[in-house]
């Protein structure tokens, strides 16, 4: 972090304070859904699911934004056992307060369209994008694969807290949560009254099925393992699973066109998670030739940039399969980024990425309120001067 460079303790304190200010100061407490346990709707370790809710006010009192947390998946028992003892597998390990920024911010200056809505961040602790449902629990591992039950139990709790009176509702999410917001989009709409204006927003959830740099189908076999481990097939879209191998229906490119509810896709064409884990996963790069490039796009060799341009072409082909209906929104920038709705820097600041002079927060608002059907795809990297490219440090943590 930046403040670690300052040696004087007071300077540290000052800079640390500024970092806190930047997150806007809004912290929201956790709610555990205790009654979900009786329904078997639990995190990997059997603990209750949880969410953070900041109440709407003023004209937003009957509008609900439900945002699903991301955090990858676990694809086999070993990986799920590792996850079980982290905040991504147990509500016992979750922070009780979370900063709400970007799409979750409560001031018009940082979130012009949704600041006074009810804003909910649903915690992710099942490892299957809320799709798993295995009845049996192996006593040797005590793993609970119950993501789909968690989804329902949390929605029922929110409906009872007032969401059943929603006039406007958005299901959103980032990464694995962005994928879940596509997978559950129509079922979210079905839970709400007929008169509610319901739309879904997927941030960095459009994972594509392409071969990695070694020519292997890495992500396809990984997603197949996720779907098999969590027995997710029965909770994927029937209109997709009836026509192809169920595991394929985890990929938006094979199922998103069947979603009836209006859907907005925010994704970087060079999504940094996808470049790091789909195009050039460690398995496909045994000599670490991709390491420097993966951590900072400025380090990429010309041949690597060419592979990334080819990835973008595949991304756009996969994306266009969802059709160009005016109910579909798209903000496809050419930044090296992953998740752009919760980070204030991406969502709505003076220097946030813009397409056609429009920042993400405005594009989503224009689409939600039917002002314009925003569908814009950026020119190829490095053409967009407003791009914010993420940089990862040697421990693979995100830096700004
Ligand atoms: C489980 O998946 C991980 C990747 O998440 C892999 O490294 C490991 O080898 C797999 N383990 C087994 C037993 O298949
Ligand atoms: C850019 O915005 C203008 C005015 O809002 C609109 O007419 C035009 O179609 C947009 N162009 C693209 C590529 O989205």
User: Strand order within the widest sheet?
Assistant: 4-1-2-5-3-6-7-8-9-12
What CATH architecture label applies? 3-Layer(aba) Sandwich
Q: What is the CATH top level name?
A: Alpha Beta
Tell me the span between the first and last alpha carbons.
9 Å
The rounded Rg comes to 20 Å
Task: Give a structural overview.
By secondary structure, the chain is α/β, with parallel strands linked by helices. The protein has a single domain, classed as Rossmann fold, CATH 3.40.50. Helices cover 29% and strands 16% of the residues. Strands 4-1-2-5-3-6-7-8-9-12 form a 10-stranded mixed β-sheet, with helices on both faces. It has a two-stranded antiparallel sheet with strand order 10-11. The N and C termini lie close together (9 Å). The structure holds 2-acetamido-2-deoxy-beta-D-glucopyranose (2 copies).
Which helices and strands occur, and which strands form pairs?
Elements: H1 9-22, E1 27-32, E2 50-54, E3 63-68, H2 77-84, E4 97-99, E5 118-122, H3 147-160, E6 168-174, H4 176-183, H5 185-191, E7 197-203, H6 218-229, H7 238-241, H8 252-255, E8 263-268, H9 272-279, H10 291-295, H11 302-320, E9 328-333, H12 344-347, E10 354-355, E11 358-359, H13 360-368, E12 375-377, E13 391-392, E14 398-399
Parallel strand pairs: 3-5, 3-6, 6-7, 7-8, 8-9, 9-12
Antiparallel strand pairs: 1-2, 1-4, 2-5, 10-11, 13-14
